[in-house]
Structures are given as structure tokens and as C-alpha cells.
Amino acid sequence: MKDTAISEANPTPYHAPSRSGLTLPTVGIDIGGTKINAAVVAPGEENLLSLINAPTPTDSVQFLNTLVDMVETLKQKHNAVAVGISTAGVVDSIHGRILGSTGNMPALKNLSNLRELLTERINLPVHMENDANAAAYGEWRSGAAKGAENMFAITLGTGVGMGIVFNGLMYRGSHFYAGEGGHIAISYHRERKCTCGRWDCWEAFASGTGLQKTAELTVEAAPETAQAEFLQKYCADGKVTTYAVIAAWKDNNHIGVQIMDDWHNHIAVGLGSLINVMDPDMIVVGGGLAQFVNFELLQERTRERSMSNNFQLVPATLGNHAGIVGAAYLAMETLK
Ligand SMILES: [Zn+2]
Fold this sequence. Notes:
Mean pLDDT: 92
Number of strands: 13
Number of domains: 2
Structural class: alpha/beta
Radius of gyration: 21 Å
Bound molecules: zinc ion
Number of helices: 10
CATH architecture of the largest domain: 2-Layer Sandwich
Oligomer: single chain
Distance between the termini: 30 Å
Helix content: 25-40%
Shape: globular
């Protein structure tokens, strides 16, 4: 191993590939802001093979070297024949170029032609995909939405990500901007500024950041006694955090319940609109905050806002590894 620190972790089981898609061992790589995860997805295997990870370098040269080392490690071990990469940013997956907005990954700013550079070094075909797309595709191919004809997956984290599978194909739109559901506006009152610079995007309400904002506003507006009790009991340093809200909610504290109820309504507003446009058979909800979603409540609130009642709203099952699985499937299917 060169100068990159690659370590191994325990894999997560996933449904063994049963469709025609994956026929040969393929490396899946998920590039995150702090960590790069990689593993091999292979036909007939119920686990990811040799899940490895490394810190995400901020320097472009080191970044590329790290990817090369990771691929070489996995390729030798499992005879992998292709590589699928899941990354933040708008990705032209046809030409393998990162078109913009890679957020917190400075190394990628100088690597818009990452696919070309990597292919030259590792001598394997490489497919690149936006991370929300890859995660949705993974859940569709071998996770929670296996067998759906039309589905979309959302990830509730710092933001709200979305990926769409339409008529059995990854749907990217005409310019690779499809699936920006997090940025549909749910109000015109200019209540909350979104990270994208626009106002009142769904993400500004339904994400972790949105939940925290709702919490701050709710606590601020609460009657004095209830407010003091909430702050004293759940907010050690006086700061209203998402964790404080979750703890209060579990305690059945009135303010905590109100905030979480509003949050479920916020998520349902966006889901209802998206369902009315797409008429999907399945919707997958994942991301770090999905564990706090009451699916029964969300289902009920979403049905109130959608024309169709014929959909299933389910939690994601591949966890952090959906991107790896999806990228690997897309690589194999696109490159064969
Ligand atoms: Zn926005």
C-alpha cells in the first residue's frame, strides 16, 4: 500500500443479485466528504466483499492515488472487471464528468475528468453517478424497492437527496439535474433560505437542518414555563439541537411532540407533491434521520396529500452501502 491508509470494516448483508444486471464482480466506490468506502459487489453473494475505507484526501493528486490503491486492492482480491463510483455533485454519467457543486470536497474541484484519469491508471471501465442516484438505484436493484416499476428514494440528512428509477431505468433528466426534489419550493412566503440560495425549498424544512430550525422557532414561541422546562431538561448548554428534540419526543414532552409532528408534515408535503407528479409504486426513505421517522404517521400524512393511494412508503435497507451497491450495478449494466 502506498501512502494511503485503507482499513477494512464489516460488510452489510444485501439481497443477492437476482436480476440480469450484475454478472461479474464489480467494485463499488462511495465518495463521501470525510470517508471513501469501497467494496466488491458480486453475483450470488449476499454480502459486500472486502469492504474497505480511507479518509477523503483534500488534495487532488492524493485523492486520485487513494482511489487507485483501493481499486487495485479489490481488483486483485476478487477479479473485479469494472468500477462504479458514487459521488456528490451533478454528474454527467454518459461522458463521465462532474459538472459542478461537489460541496465539501475540494479535491474534486480539479478532477472534473476523474473517470478518464482513473481509467488510465487502473485499466478498467469506470462509471460515475451522482450519490443520491446511486443510492436509489441500489435500493431498487437489491434493497427496499426491489421489484418496483417506478420508484424514488429520498435521503434525509443535512440536506434532502433524491434519486428516481422510472420505467425500470435510472432517470437523470435531459441535463443530469433530475432528482433535485429537495429543492422544490413548498411555500412562497420567503420563510427560510435554502443552501442553494433560493427560498423555502423542501430541504430547508424536511432535512436535519430544517428540523433544527423548526425546533428553534417552536421553542422560541412556546409559553415561558414550557420553554424553560424544555431547555433545562433537554438542552444542557441551552442550545436546541436535533438530539434534544428526539429525546423530548421520546419522553412525550409536548414541545418535542409538536416539533416532530411538524417535521412529519414537512416531509409529507414534499412527498405528496412528488407522488402526484410521478405516481410511483414505491418510495424509499433513507439517510441518517430516517431512523427517527414514524413510518405509520408519515404514510398517513402523505396519503392525505397524494391523489394515488397505491404506493408503499418504506425505510431503506442498505444503509450506508446503498451508494456502493447502486454504483456497482450501474457500472456493470452500463458498461457491458
Ligand atoms: Zn434549495
